[in-house]
Design goal:
Rossmann fold, alpha/beta, N-(1-d-carboxylethyl)-l-norvaline Dehydrogenase, domain 2, NADP, 299 residues, Ketopantoate_reductase, 2 domains, 12 strands, single chain, EC 1.1.1.169
Length: 299
């Protein structure tokens, strides 16, 4: 299978490295410097087993849509989706897999005349150390579900070769899958970013844990979660299993990059407003993160 991977961040590099073992990968990146570096040196990945390299074809993101790939995996952050997709003439039948955090990206997908769309929730821990290098720190899995259209044979062709090396888990309910990831992101990301702590501190420090629980109560009310204990235990388990990890939002704040707070808490605020519900803690965290971005020269 020929696969386009759009986005040269940590997730784009991670997926390019592993999927290139069994498929033909074309990585699309935003700038010439990254393209030239990967062309010259390949992609370097470090995990608990050591350091490895692979050569992949790499092009500029402006060229995406012209390569005739069988599938495009969209790995850019949600705030880059509009600039990536606007004015693109994507063929309606071309399969796309979206790997954004939150659930706000579903609105972008609905604006496109697409017939075959998958969405995923990435549970791996990874961070980029250079234009061509990624550290695979937390080995998990990628949950994947159909959003529009369905072709089980196509999906099996994509994921079956990676049963052990880079596992995928097919899910029947895309909404529940994305909501579980949203709840995790909505609690762990803003709290760790503001408190500047590793994930595990949120459940180890009783004062942080109190806010953790209060935030979950607001979120479950807005989303009207029916399996609230399942969602709650999932967040606790993620904190425990990634206790030494620094969240992606914490890294964004530390490095002065825009965060995905609009895609995560912004989505929940919109849902609360539509339901005439109050969300004081979510609103406070949202504006603290946005204020932090503004202080560092963001928007």
């Amino acid at each position: 299978m020929k696969i386009a991977i759009v986005g040269g961040g940590a997730i784009g590099l991670l997926f390019s490295f592993y999927l290139n073992q069994h498929h033909e990968v074309v990585l699309y990146v935003r700038n010439i410097q990254q393209r030239d570096r990967i062309q010259a040196k390949g992609i370097h990945l470090t995990n608990h087993q050591g350091s490895f390299s692979t050569k992949v074809e790499v092009r500029l993101a402006s060229e995406w849509g012209k390569g005739g790939e069988d599938l495009s995996i969209i790995c850019v952050k949600q705030y880059h989706l509009q600039s990536l997709l606007e004015n693109k003439k994507i063929e309606a039948h071309h399969p796309l897999l979206f790997l954004q955090n939150g659930m706000g990206h579903l609105e972008y997908i609905d604006r496109l005349n697409l017939r075959f769309v998958l969405v995923g929730a990435v549970e791996h821990g990874a961070y980029r150390t250079d234009d061509d290098s990624v550290v695979h720190k937390g080995e998990g899995q990628t949950r994947i579900a159909f959003y529009k259209g369905a072709d089980q044979e196509f999906l099996d062709t994509l994921i079956k070769p990676f049963h052990q090396s880079f596992p995928f888990q097919k899910e029947d309910d895309f909404k529940e899958m994305l909501q579980k990831k949203l709840v995790v992101n909505a609690i762990i990301n803003p709290l760790t970013a503001l408190l500047k702590v590793q994930n595990g501190a949120l459940i180890e420090n009783p004062h942080f844990f109190q806010t953790f629980r209060e935030l979950f109560v607001e979120i479950k009310g807005i989303l009207r979660l029916e399996k609230e204990e399942l969602y709650y235990q999932n967040v606790v388990e993620v904190c425990r299993n990634t206790s030494q990890n620094r969240s992606s939002m914490l890294k964004d704040v530390e490095e002065g990059r825009p965060t995905e707070i609009d895609a995560i808490l912004g989505y929940l605020i919109k849902q609360a407003n539509e339901k005439n519900m109050q969300a004081p803690l979510i609103n406070a965290l949202f504006h603290l993160i946005k204020g932090n971005e503004l202080e560092k020269g963001g928007k």
